[in-house]
Write a structure and sequence with these properties.
By secondary structure, the protein is mainly α. Helix content is 78%, strand content 0%. It contains nine helices and no strands. Helix 1 packs antiparallel against helix 2, helix 1 packs antiparallel against helix 7 and helix 6 runs parallel beside helix 9. The longest helix is centred in the middle third of the chain and has 54 residues. It is elongated, with a radius of gyration of 25 Å. InterPro entries: SLATT_1 (IPR040884), SLATT_3 (IPR041116). Keywords: Membrane, Transmembrane, Transmembrane helix.
Length: 293
């Protein structure tokens, strides 16, 4: 079984870099929305004391200004780009690693110097993505080809086939199914929240028509609606639930065809086709977010 530590150091670097960028991006995105909603709430406060009213107005303006600053910070730090590209790069390295470990294209059994070819591909990944790999490669376990990768590669055809189908193909199938269901549930939940916020905005506005002494909180709910829409747009719940479901179906077909393979030559091509399918989803995943290198 290929564990996290058994993958190349470059994979672990890109993976940790992407996850760190993701955490930072989501944190600042949430913080920006929080500032926006808080500013909206503060701005609706009806303070009779004129002096306190000025302070409240200044506070509301400061909160909105803070949201604007955070928005510019997210834009110029390019955290979203680092998150997406780092993830796509990590998945590409993982794909090449599995190709090597199970003797898939282009690391067939007949190819000489496969370790050198693998290391060359790692160097190419680094050369093509230097601006995104800002951290250093971990000093511990700085291998390109780990002992476990070699162990799987040197195992029998049946063992390699079983390992690949269970640990790679089936693992991908489970992941895409799980994420498809997760995004569908999140889409429904946030749609429900949006409907509630819209309804509250409508109700409070109708109350104001008949009672002008009622505190005008319509703008608060309108702001909440905007924040909910911004969040669901950023997370792409509906789009991902659909695309992941399609990918899961494709992988299930790949898994079925893999079980029928009984010779090494067909397995070479099968691994190449399977990894091409995984890589295609990663490429589309990157393109869907309009990230340009």
């Amino acid at each position: 079984m290929l564990e996290y530590k058994d993958f190349p150091a470059l994979f672990r670097t890109c993976d940790s870099y992407s996850m760190a960028a993701q955490r930072k991006y989501i944190f600042w995105f949430r913080f920006e929305l929080l500032l926006l909603v808080t500013g909206g709430v503060v701005g609706t406060l009806d303070i009779e004391n004129e002096q306190y009213g000025k302070y409240i107005a200044i506070l509301a303006a400061a909160l909105f200004l803070g949201g604007l600053v955070v928005s510019f910070y997210r834009k110029f730090e390019k955290l979203e780009d680092s998150w997406y590209i780092g993830r796509a790069l990590a998945e590409s390295i993982k794909s090449v690693t599995w190709r090597y470990a199970v003797k898939g294209e282009p690391f067939e059994e007949t190819i000489e110097n496969v370790d050198s070819i693998f290391r060359k591909m790692m160097r190419e990944f680094i050369d093509e993505n230097k601006e995104f790999i800002k951290g250093n490669i971990p000093e511990d376990n700085m291998h390109a080809v780990s002992p476990k990768m070699k162990e799987i590669r040197n195992s029998s055809f049946e063992d390699r086939k079983t390992t690949y189908l269970s640990e790679r193909v089936n693992d991908q199938l489970s992941w895409y199914r799980r994420k498809s269901n997760y995004n569908k549930k999140k889409k429904d939940v946030f749609f429900g929240f949006t409907v509630i916020a819209y309804s509250l905005a409508i109700v409070t506005h109708l109350i104001l028509i008949s009672d002008n002494t009622f505190l005008n909180v319509t703008s608060i709910f309108a702001t909440v609606v905007g924040c909910l829409i911004s969040w669901t747009t950023m997370k792409k719940y509906q789009e991902l639930s659909q695309s992941y479901a399609v990918t899961a179906h494709e992988i299930s077909l790949i898994l079925e065809s893999g079980a029928e393979i009984n010779n090494q030559e067909d397995f070479y091509a099968f691994v190449g086709d399977a990894e091409a399918a995984f890589s295609r989803e990663h490429t589309l995943w990157l393109a869907r977010r309009d990230v340009v290198r």
